[in-house]
Amino acid sequence: MNLKESLLASAHDLFMKYGIKSVSMDDISKRLGVSKKTIYSCVATKDDLIANVLDKHLEKDECEIKKILSESSDAIDEMVNITRHLITFLSNMTPSIIYDLKKYHPLSWGKIETSHFSFIEKTILENLNRGQKEGLYRNDINPKILSKLYVMKSTAIADHEKFPIEEFDRVSLILEVIKYHLYGIVSDKGLKIIQQKHKTFFNL
Fold first, then answer.
1. pTM (2 d.p.)
2. Contact 40, 72 (CB under 8 A)
């Protein structure tokens, strides 16, 4: 691992654990055991560092989701596995990181809203189409509309003003969104699969 890769990995770990605003370049240099001058030979500013960390994180996240899509046995299994992935991600992340990005680093947050949310929307759209073909989702739903609504619901639960972290646990919010989503779209056949295969996961 070269210096820049080590820098991005260390910064990522610190941001995820403590949030972005509370982690200084001094903290990162101490973690790496190098001077700030050495860090600035790799990145121009903290904003630049955050953008690089985010690019790498989103690339990794999208690769992991694509792997889930290729390995899931059916559309419902796919959605459950994506949810597990999201829960693992949220469990390892300080709740303030989204707030920090939105307030202090709007360009980086904007990239998430445009690029990553588009990827998520496309993923959900394909899942809805798959579920209809497999007979697990109702045929009278509109996948294009629902995939957009899914992303809107996901962004809403990331809003600390609507869902204060002191009152709403992020993992519980994700589970509620997924249950709300799936129960609104599954066919009778799909409901049986949830009740038989995923009963424990959804605490049914």
1. 0.87
2. no
